Structures are given as C-alpha cells and as structure tokens.
Amino acid sequence: MKIRLLARTLKRLANTGVLRRSGNVGVLRRSSGASILKRPVGAGFIKRFTVGFAILFSVCALVSCGPSSRQIPGGQGADSDGAHEGISGNLSGEVADEKASQAPDSSGESDGTHDGESSSESSDKNQKVPENAQKRHICLTFDDGPTRVTEDILDVLSRYNIKATFFVTGKNAEKNPEILARIFDEHHTVAIHTYSHVYREIYASPEALADDINRCFCAIKGVNCDFEPRFYRFPGGSFTLGETLKNVPSAMGLRYVDWNAACRDSEVRGATPDELAAFARATAQGKERVIMLLHDAADKKNTALALPKIIEEFLSDGFSFVSLEKVFDFS
Asked: DSSP label at 165?
C-alpha cells in the first residue's frame, strides 16, 4: 500500500512539473561552493517545487519511521544526517544505587557474564524516591536481552501479573526483534543499556558513550517507532565511573539507574536456581525499596528458573512489585 501511495505521489509530482525532464525547469549545479542556475527559475516553478516537496516529504514520513530519522544529541547514530533530535524528557540523571565491590572489566567484550555487577554494600545517599511511595516494594530489572531466555522470563511475569524493566542491548534487539516486540506488547518498561557491551569501546570517551547509547536507541526504535526512553543503565553500573561519563545520559535526557540488590547471576557462574533466589533475598535484606538486578542473556536460563521462587519469597515478605516509573513517580 505504501509503494502504491509513493507511486501515485511521484505521478502527481510529475504532473506539477517538478519531475519533468524538460521544459522551463531550472537545473541547480554546485560550483566553487555556490549554487548556479543554468536557466532562470520563475515563480511558477518555485510554487510547483514547494508543493511537490511538501507532498514528497509527507510520503517519506509514511513509508518509513525507522531509527535513522531520529538521533539522541551527542551520539553518532546510524544513518545520521547531522540533525540531532533529542529524546524527550527533562530528567536529572539521579540514581538509585549501591556501592559496587568490583570495577567493570574493561578488557573486552562481554558475553552477558561480565564481572563488576554486585551489590554487597548499602548506600542510600543517592537513592531518591517519592515520599509517598509504598513501603517494601521491589522493581525487577533485567539486563542484556532480548534472547530466548527473555521469553521464559516473560512467561513467568505474565503468570504473576508483574511488570518489569528490560535494559536492552542493541545487538540483541536487532537479532531478536520479535522478542523485543513482545516486551512492548505486554507493557513492560523498555530501557537503554548498551549497543555492544564492549567496555573498552563504550567508556573510551564521553563521545563514545553517547554514540553507544544512541546506537542502542536506534536499534530499539527500529522495532517500535513509538519508543520514548526514560531510563538508562551503565554496563557494569555507574559505581566506578567518573562524573564526566556519568553526566552523559542526563545530558541526553535519560535518568540512569543502578541497583541495590542482585541475584548475582553474572558473578557466580553455575549457580543453581535456588542459590540465585537466596542471593536475591540476602542482598535485599533490610531494604524497604529494592531495585533488583537480574539478567536475561542467552546463558542465564537458571535466572528464569529462579524467578518464580524469587517472586514468591518477596511476596511472602510483604513486598509489592512495581515498575521503575512508579519508583521514580512518573505518571
């Protein structure tokens, strides 16, 4: 239908004279930095060109709503024409974080089992949530998907009628667009994590970080044209990063979010589902408001298996499961 619409529009343009090969149409040629008219252009042509261009522009907007039409400021997105249009939002980059016990591994590419994402020490000085937020609530957050494991996690969340937040990896979004579409369809929160998850590239400079964020944004936008992100999570967390890098997401209209509890599925290789559930409960001990780190990378099948027990135990402890929007009081 879009192709037929484009064909009809091109025909209309031809009828206006804009696309005629001959006649009194002026031809523009660039020479020494200036535009030179080979033939005088009259008012009639200008009128025809203006109307024709407006029609063509409207058709292009209908034919495509892909990621190349939008770019986060500061990033070098795919197919960018240099016109930076920022993600809407007026966010401050505040975090709900805990002091990490390890620094991110900057040696190479992560396969979803990267180190440095622990939550062994409590520090609420930067955690800002609304005073009227319900006590004893937990927000489940999943990093590094979407993958086939994500589907198992979505099945569990659907069974318990719980909404979670998925910090998406751009490469996996491109590889598994149908799974990402399911996350949107089931009304979970989709947020930006990273495009490549290669620390040495992402954290090479503020510009490199902005580029990685923007590429991830474009990958997600390619699946859902209506994607308007609010949240971002640094690969490895923000705990050991300098202020220059920490300021990048907020400058791009995003709030970055860490975590204050974890099932430790990226730290303890080969942990059983029962062990992961025990880690989740132990790291949340004594906290009224929990942002739980889990992963839905392809090798995290035990995380999906542990999820029912994690949910059951927190429910028995009197926790309610909430979205990040509620934690940070977004309407």
From this structure: E
Give the chain's domains with CATH numbers: 2-63 (no CATH), 91-327 (3.20.20.370)
Q: Is 300 exposed, middle or buried, given 0-12, 13-18 or 19+ CB atoms closer than 10 A?
A: buried
Contact 171, 222 (CB under 8 A): no
CA distance 40 to 118: 70
pTM comes to: 0.65
Average confidence (pLDDT) over 259-273: 97
Task: Encode pLDDT of 226-259 as tens digits.
Answer: 999 999 999 999 999 999 999 999 999 999 999 9
Partners of 36 in the β-ladder: 29
Q: Which single residue is written with the structure tokens 């974080």?
A: 97
Instruction: Count Cβ atoms below 10 Å from residue 8 Cβ, excluding itself.
Output: 12
263-274 burial code (b ≥16 CB/10 A, e <16): bbbbbeeebebe
Quote the CA–CA distance of 168 and 152 in Å, as a whole number: 16
| Contacts (Cβ under 8 Å, ≥6 apart) of 194 | 169, 170, 202, 212, 213, 216, 235
Tell me the pLDDT tens digit for each residue of 73-126. Answer: 443 333 333 222 223 232 233 333 333 333 333 333 333 323 334 333 333 333
Residue pair 217/190 in contact by the 8 Å Cβ criterion? no
Residues 6+ apart with CB under 8 A from 206: 74, 244, 245, 247, 248
